[in-house]
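A protein record in our archive is deliberately plain, so that people and models can read it alike. The record that follows is passed on verbatim for readers who wish to inspect the format.
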Amino acid sequence: MSEDEKEIEEEDEECIVMCCHEGEHHNLAQKIRKKIIVDLGHGLEGRDNVVMTRLNDDDLAKIDALVEVEVFKSRSEAAAFFIKEGVQARSDLFGKVMQTVEQIRKLKDQAKHSLATTPEKKD
């Protein structure tokens, strides 16, 4: 672990400890912090794509709570984390879907190619 990563981890731990004092929530906060730091450090790089979404009030309140206690820096970071978690949790589904999507793309390319090479009829 680099010096920068150690420093960030120490700062993040201080934040979680300050927000969730000793007791039953302290252990939960520690687990959340460790899970998120590992995933954020390795999984949320290169977030250059923007996706707008609508959430119900309950889901937004939960995301905002995590932002408020500084588990995440922003709603965007929290949403990206949970989308990534969902995709990973359903990797079996995405493995099947991606194979089908690739076949569809090939068929579309074949159709476009055959249309481009078909001579036009003259009436």
Summary: Residues 26 and 122 are 78 Å apart (CA to CA). The radius of gyration is 23 Å. DSSP finds five helices and no strands in the chain. Residues 91-117 form the longest helix (27 residues).
